[in-house]
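Quick one:
INPUT:
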């Protein structure tokens, strides 16, 4: 139960109502806040989520309106401003989409509240992002399913109850008992919790290794006579002067003194800890459907691989999550606007702005243009149709039937 359940609930409704608060304890304490802190404490998670969100926010969103049997793009008006330029006074569309996608990818949930203006009916005039950590959901049972009853916001002394119809909740499907009863989505990081924890532990281990590698070894005297404290301090000071500094990390310095150096480097186990970081990176990338070569995976960083990885990132990660966000927003926001303006609106993402997706199309277009020029040149040549057919077969590797179809029906059977 959420921390505000007794305050908000009516005693008569307790048997069928569950209250859940999102935030540092939305995972019921099982992960001890690991998911909440993943985006700000784990560099790999931050890089993956930010790359997806940054690419999503730069895909233009367009508003279209149905005019008879055709769709016409809308380029002005209040609704156009809300869905393509500035959803609220505090955010432009880029900031809005970035926060929405980031919340969805880290928490598994995004919440947006609609605000109406007197005199404009039921159509929302502003869409405000809601911080997950200040929101509580009341869930009720209806038709053997848990559904939201209302949403509650609390920040400091400010409290607000938001009706279900005024809140847009985007989430990833959560088939767990907790997910069903809480009406909350499943965070990818919850599904990959073991990989996340292992990644955090690996980074902690690497940090400890680097700190402990300040001492690379021991300098001892070869003499049978033990060094006096004063002699030891002199050797230490001379060694520090010559060996200290990041540029000399891991190096040994030559000396004419009669001393021995005992190595204290990393053993095989320590090296494995560093090498295993790549495996944890790949696990996290797999959670989000992106290729690890985009995030400094040393084993998979060729130019061709990177181009394919970028294309795959858009098709498998960026575009689907952006479309999910747009679809949920459309189903919640547009009906009231459709009724008010007596039309049908649609929000689309403009994929023509993504160069990596159109490189193959550009190549195909260039190839087709070259083929067209060859065909025109042959057809306009002052030669017989039979010779044109032979030329097309040789130049474009066509079959005889294909060449004849291009030339026309006047050709005779070729010997």
């Amino acid at each position: 139960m959420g921390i505000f359940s007794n305050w908000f609930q009516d005693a008569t409704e307790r048997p069928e109502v569950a209250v859940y608060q999102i935030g540092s304890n939305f995972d019921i304490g099982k992960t001890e806040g690991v998911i909440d802190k993943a985006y700000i404490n784990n560099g790999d998670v931050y890089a993956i989520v930010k790359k997806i969100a940054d690419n999503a926010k730069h895909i233009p969103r367009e508003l279209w309106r149905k005019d008879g049997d055709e769709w016409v793009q809308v380029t002005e008006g209040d609704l156009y401003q809300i869905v393509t330029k500035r959803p609220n006074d505090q955010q432009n569309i880029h900031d809005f989409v970035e926060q929405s996608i980031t919340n969805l990818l880290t928490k598994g949930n995004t919440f947006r509240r609609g605000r109406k203006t007197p005199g404009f009916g039921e159509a929302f005039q502003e869409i405000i992002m809601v911080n997950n950590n200040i929101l509580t959901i009341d869930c009720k049972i209806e038709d053997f399913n848990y559904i939201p009853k209302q949403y509650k916001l609390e920040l400091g002394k400010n409290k607000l109850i938001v009706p279900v119809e005024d809140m847009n909740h985007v989430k990833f499907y959560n088939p767990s008992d907790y997910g069903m009863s809480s009406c909350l989505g499943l965070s990818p990081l919850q599904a990959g919790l073991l990989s996340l924890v292992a990644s955090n532990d690996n980074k902690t281990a690497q940090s400890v290794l680097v700190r402990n590698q300040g001492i690379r070894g021991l300098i001892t005297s070869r003499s049978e006579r033990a060094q006096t404290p004063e002699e030891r301090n002199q050797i230490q000071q001379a060694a520090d002067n010559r060996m200290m500094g990041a540029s000399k990390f891991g190096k040994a310095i030559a000396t004419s003194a009669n001393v021995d150096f005992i190595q204290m480097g990393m053993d095989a186990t320590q090296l494995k800890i560093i090498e295993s970081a790549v495996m944890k990176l790949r696990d996290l990338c797999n959670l989000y459907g992106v290729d690890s070569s985009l995030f400094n995976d040393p084993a998979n960083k060729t130019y061709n691989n990177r181009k394919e990885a970028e294309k795959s990132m858009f098709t498998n990660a960026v575009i689907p999550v952006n479309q999910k966000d747009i679809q949920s927003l459309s189903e919640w926001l547009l009906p009231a606007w459709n009724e008010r303006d007596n039309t049908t609106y649609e929000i689309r993402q403009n994929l023509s702005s993504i160069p990596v997706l159109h490189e193959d199309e550009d190549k195909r277009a260039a190839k087709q243009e070259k083929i067209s020029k060859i065909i025109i040149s042959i057809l306009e040549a002052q030669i017989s149709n039979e010779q044109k057919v032979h030329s097309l077969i040789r130049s474009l590797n066509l079959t005889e039937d294909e060449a004849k179809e291009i030339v026309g029906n006047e050709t005779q059977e070729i010997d």
